[in-house]
Amino acid sequence: MDSVSSTSSLDDSTQLSPNSDPKAVDQRFDLLSVTDEPIQSEPGHRGNGDGFTNGSLNPERSTGDEDDDQLGVEDQELVADEGPSSPNSYSYAGERGSASATSVSRIDAASDIDDIEIQEVRNESSFEGISDSQPSSGVPGKHRVDEDDASISWRKRKKHFFILSNSGKPIYSRYGDEHKLAGFSATLQAVISFMENGGDRVKLVKAGKHQVVFVVKGPIYLVCISCNEEPFESLKGQLELIYGQMILILTKSINRSFEKNPKFDMTHLLGGTDDVFSSLIHSFSWNPATFLHAYTCLPLAYATRQAAGAILQDVADSGVLFAILMCKHKVISLVGAQKASLRPDDILLLSNFVMSSESFRTSESFSPICLPRYNPLAFLHAYVHFLDVDTYLMLLTTSSDAFYHLKDCRIRIETVLLKSNVLSEVQRSLLDGGIRVEDLHVAPLPRSGPLPHQVQQILQTDSPERPREPFVGIGGPAGLWHFIYRSIYLDQYVSSEFSPPLNNHQQQKRLYRAYLRLYASMHDKGIGPYKTQFKRDENYVLLCWVTQDFELYAAFDPLADKAEAIKTCNRVCQWLKGVENEIFLHGASPFSW
């Protein structure tokens, strides 16, 4: 029996009409009704006068009760004598009042993480928010390699990731030198083995504000230690992606090496890939693809995207398994061979591998890779070539001697893309940016329409036939600040650019974590799933709407009116329908969307 601690609470949330079916506009875009039943605040929660619950999605401001005095794995309790803590390789900084387990799994209560907040080290100029335009440089690398588990700064880190073998050998650590963390890795391995020897499997340990999440993949153990109040399922999903990134580099056949030698050291196989894992972990704080399991497309005119897809289809018919044209982390077009299906997570991991490896930028490359969702046991070979500083082409094949054939295919593709001005249109779209909530004020709602940036240009011209609505507040109508829309049918999403007042990285990161919590609560099988959910706190109003065809997550001004927010969400869906041919990839035959 698996042991799992509860990881998320909906005490601060309010659900609107759970499992109710909204009225339909058409088959794929529904209408969210404003005639929901009144929302009642739960007992013990302070209201705001409008019947909404005032919960906090801000981890730094949360005052929720924590399990400060327990180190539990569901109904099991790990108990040991309390003793003085010391900065050794078997300790980790926890909160005051946290109980200790055995000497092997001791939680070091030497310091309170709330007293000294150590910010995650990152290149501020390269921060990437949940917007459609991302910086092109500054891939985050390995953090603080001089640290070890005896370092105060290491213990104060808010979020750690570890990969280790079932023998306790460290493979990767987000912070510090893996070799200096050998003792700590042995501690984590001992905790997992202790539970497995008892016929159980540890998934989550909670100690105060810290969550320790475990994922076991055969001989590979993955661990996350976090005090950011992210949901358990989110942290588990992040560990799954880290494992997928490792499989993309090595394939699942690495298990056979451990079967032959349980003490096998695989660190040399991952040499030079620290930037790849660091970049993926960095994306957990800005990229919705990491929890939506969907990919996003660069906004392009329908004819431009079709032109790119046509030439990719030509080379796919000549023996290429997958042909993918991307700009940064966004898909321009992709095609695949018959009966071949490329999953969104594979696109995420593949693009992260390419974007975070400098060697791919300097010359055309032919590298063995594995697509964990496609076939975790098989090596493919990827031909990668950057057409400009942001745009790159990936051609995947099963043949190890197809380099020159793929090079010829690339020359054909590049020639067509230049002649048809696809690359120049890509650069223009990149400069124009993505969808902005401000454009929703007077955006038309046609069955098909221009690109969002074209809509903006049209609306800047005063026209008596199209009167402007009065601007009220900051952001879009009804105080709309941001939204994410996911098409379930297409496995694609689109998100708006950040607008005031979401100006700085901390505000954007806080909103991202709020989305994580909202997504987890909407998809919590134990209490839902819900069709709609409405939350109000001191930071924003969050409205989520899930149908069989799409999911919409929207953030409004905290003083936004409920009825107006719902109307605005309806309008966002209709607006996106009008430009869906430009923001989504349709008809990528032979994919079965």
UniProtKB/TrEMBL annotation:
Domain FUZ/MON1/HPS1 second Longin: 319-412
Compositionally biased intervals (Acidic residues): 65-80
Compositional bias (Low complexity): 1-17
GO BP field: protein targeting to vacuole; vesicle-mediated transport
Comp. bias (Polar residues): 51-61, 126-137
Domain FUZ/MON1/HPS1 first Longin residues, every copy: 159-280
One family name in Pfam for this protein: Fuz_longin_3
Name of the protein in its database record: Vacuolar fusion protein MON1 homolog
InterPro entries, A to Z: FUZ/MON1/HPS1_longin_1 (IPR043972), FUZ/MON1/HPS1_longin_2 (IPR043971), FUZ/MON1/HPS1_longin_3 (IPR043970), Mon1 (IPR004353)
Domain FUZ/MON1/HPS1 third Longin: 479-577
UniProt region (Disordered), positions on chain: 1-106, 123-146
Family the entry assigns: Belongs to the MON1/SAND family.
PANTHER family: SAND PROTEIN-RELATED, VACUOLAR FUSION PROTEIN MON1 HOMOLOG
Described purpose of this protein according to its UniProt entry: Plays an important role in membrane trafficking through the secretory apparatus.
